[in-house]
Amino acid sequence: MKQCLPGLFSGDPAGVEAAGPNDNTWTRISGFARTVLMATGLILAATPCSAASLVYKSVLIGGIAVSYRESGTKGMPTILLLHGVPTSSRMYDRLMRQIGSRYHMVALDYPGFGNSDAPDPAIFAYTFDHLAEIVQAFTDALGLDHFVLFMQDYGAPVGMRVATARPDSVRALIFQNGNVYEDGLGAVWAKRRLYWADRSKYEREISESQASLDVVRQRHLGDDPNVEAYDPDLWRDEVAFLNRPGESKIQTELIYDYRTNIESYPQWQKWLKAHQLPTLVIWGKHDLSFTVPGAWAFRRDLPEAQIEILDGGHFVMDTQLDEVARLTTHFLESNRHTL
């Protein structure tokens, strides 16, 4: 059983349990000493004695029901978690349960994803500009004035639009295989570029492939040889989602609009360089969509960025949840004064 120190991160002495059998040493450690130990990583393996509680809600944004999950309270540092494709806020559920007692964590489903409404593309523009506008309106509705952005896959272009529009709201950045450099675009993007150049010629092929079991499974596995570490329910559930009525059109609209993200990379890189926010980059090295050079590229604009390459795939929390939780907690605690 994992040992636990629930009060260590919250500063609540009443919540601190012994680090070992019959040892109440941690209850007597000063705040300064705890900070030193946190910085050295000696106590980051400690986990909460019980999982954080989550609530599942929705809010109307422009007449669209946007679903979200939430842990913690507003008095804690806020982490806004932006998901990738073809998942939803569900991808963060286990992380939120593991560290959500220390932070106010909020993860929403974009329109067209998860449990949010999925209006027809004929009446709702599925573009990354529009998704970012929805996220900004969402933060207004919930009263989230300041937050850390945690971005995975699609979350990066959505989040960077939010950051550039509202720089005073963003206190720190976490990228998990969230690409903003051409260095990180893998070979799989060659077909997407053909689609962007000739939409009518390639749209049917793109539409059919993005919802296929093989493609969705490969997105999780990449070139990871440890296939048995992955729960096949991950891609089975996503395939079911991608094949629900109307979903194919929504996803192809976003795939086509993705070209605007690559066009925006230079602008976002300049923003990163100008603002120098505390930044954690976590990257699964087996990702075939966004490759490891995309992680190291952050150093060009953010020389102080913490870059961690993990033995996992595109959704690195599939197999490296505990390590992501440890790295995230260490980063947040090290930068708590800015949050």
Task: Walk me through what this model shows.
The chain is of the alpha/beta class and 339 residues long. It folds into two domains: 50 residues, no CATH class; 284 residues, Rossmann fold, CATH 3.40.50.1820. Helix content is 40%, strand content 14%. An eight-stranded mixed β-sheet has the order 1-2-4-3-5-6-7-8, with helices on both faces. A hairpin with a 2-residue loop joins strand 1 and strand 2. Helix 5 packs antiparallel against helix 6. The N terminus is likely disordered.
* CATH architecture verdict of the largest domain: 3-Layer(aba) Sandwich
Largest sheet: 8 strands, mixed
CATH superfamily of the largest domain: Alpha/Beta hydrolase fold, catalytic domain
Largest sheet, spatial ordering of strands = 1-2-4-3-5-6-7-8
Mind telling me the C-alpha Rg? 20 Å
The overall strand count is: 8
CATH class type of the largest domain: Alpha Beta
Which fold name is given in CATH as the topology of the largest domain? Answer: Rossmann fold
Helical amount among residues, as a percent range?
40-55%
Number of helical regions: 13
Q: Quick one: overall form?
A: globular
pLDDT < 50 runs, ≥5 residues: 1-48
Distance between the termini: 32 Å
For the record, the count of structural domains works out to 2
Structural class: alpha/beta
Could you tell me the mean pLDDT?
A: 88
How much of the polypeptide forms β-strand, as a percent range?
5-15%
Classify the oligomer.
Answer: single chain
Helix/strand order, N-terminal first? HEEEHEHEHEHHHHHHEHHEH
